[in-house]
Amino acid sequence: MLKLLYKPYFGRVKAVYIDPPYNTGSDFVYPDDYAKPLDAYLQLSGQIDAEGNLQTSNPESSGRYHSAWLSMMYPRLFLARQLLTDDGMIFVSIDDREVHNLRFLMNEIFGEENFMQQLIWKRNSGGGNNMKHLATNHEYILMYAKSRDEVGRLRRPLTEKEQAAYKGRDAYYTTLGPYKTFRLEAPLRHQRESRRYEIECPDGSKVVKYWAWSEARFRQWKAENKIVFKRNSNGEWQVEYKHYLNSSARVMRSLLTDMEQTSHGTAQLRKLFERDDVFIFDFPKPVGLIKHLLQFSTAADSIILDFFAGSCTTAEAVLELNREDSGERQFIMVQLPEPTPEKSDARKAGFETIAEIGKERIRRVCQRENAGFRVFKLAESNYRTEDNVLAEDAQTYITHLESTVDPLREGWCEEDVLYEVALKEGYPLDSTIARVAGLATNTVFRIAAPDGSQMFYVCLDAELVPGDVECLGLSKDSVFICRDIALTDTLAANLALQCRLKTI
Ligand SMILES: C[S@@+](CC[C@H](N)C(=O)[O-])C[C@H]1O[C@@H](n2cnc3c(N)ncnc32)[C@H](O)[C@@H]1O
What we know:
Elements: H1 2-9, E1 13-18, H2 38-44, H3 65-83, E2 84-94, H4 99-110, E3 115-122, E4 138-145, E5 155-156, H5 160-164, H6 173-176, E6 179-183, E7 196-200, E8 206-210, H7 215-223, E9 227-231, E10 237-244, E11 250-251, E12 255-256, H8 262-272, H9 287-297, E13 303-306, H10 313-325, E14 330-333, H11 345-348, H12 354-369, H13 394-403, H14 414-424, E15 432-435, E16 444-448, E17 455-459, H15 466-471, E18 479-482, H16 489-498, E19 500-503
Parallel strand pairs: 1-2, 1-13, 3-12, 13-14, 17-18, 18-19
Antiparallel strand pairs: 2-4, 3-4, 5-11, 6-10, 7-8, 9-10, 15-16, 16-17
Helix pairs in contact: 1-3, 3-4, 9-10, 10-12
The structure holds S-adenosylmethionine.
């Protein structure tokens, strides 16, 4: 699937978040052979035996424990890098089992110089008393930029709770918003001789201390009435400066200790599915965690990709963020049709695959947030693959050639071919497809990029009527795609002169 995104989304994705299997020994590791039907594919990858029983495929004893996992990750990360915008970033959730290997792998793919941080996320607070040695309460998120130099300042706006602390009002209120005060005294480790000076207090008394600002800056703020003097509990003067809401934003921090935790993720999914009693999906990430990452790394019109989508927490985070800041971010979730375990709560609830769970989550969230989405299922191409026929005699060979004159497979479906053509032309999945009205015989579609910047015509009829094609008013820049078998030599020659003709 990722390969299909290559052309239409090359350099267009602002943030990738992925939460791959952590290689716990019970994860299934798939080779990327998406053209094979699922069963053959699972069998080939050793995940089911000849009887169709699921096998866990990456046991510790295999001797290739890390290499199998890394080989699964490498091509996916490699492709992901190509999809990123120049100022884009990727976040990868991982724990202690593979973090060191993954970091080497990402250094190789993204360049060591583009490493941003190994974020530490506190995933739970208690528990683990049954562990022999210690309880692990955290995991990591490796953060890399496509190009670190292109990434601007990483800041997020304040949350409602943080904003509520800004209560002061002064003459600057209409332009700078409410303010909050902070102590001007420098903490011990930031004390410098050049910033030790005397400040006169309202009662005329003087305090000499190490201050956080230079004297010039202090004088300017004092003149602008942005300095406040307070008495502390000992009756001593405390100097504070005003910090205004409109100029405040939070820097990104490497320790994510006061974030939502794993239990929140489980509760959020249960609430959404209105199933308090079951585990539809094991350990979905909390929405707040992914939202936090996206707040720093995306803008209102960004595209966000998650290709280990699972229950599609990332989609929910994107839609929530859009609601909060009136953004129009778009998400692309990719999930294999991995079967849910037979006796699992998910299967009992009617979900045959993990992809079905993700789809249902997006459906519910879109209903709540009043948003829309499209679902695409990866299938075999509508184009024939070349069969190598070893003909015993000329007639068999001719019959074979005749049967493959049309490159479309038998039983092809119009909508599927239109999307396949669009992707091959580099058009994104949210392109519009509309039938051209007013043509007497042929069915022609106009496929346009969502921003209207480019479009092309496609006709899948077996025969083209010259009058209908004329009605399209094609020009030298127009792209017209039709089936090869629909063209006569004359029509092909004429069309090639009129427009950019392509054939299927
Ligand atoms: C840890 S889960 C992601 C959970 C997700 N972040 C959430 O909050 O729901 C990892 C996902 O990767 C998928 N997966 C496992 N191996 C894969 C592979 N080789 N290629 C693609 N996806 C895979 C699994 O189906 C699973 O849904």
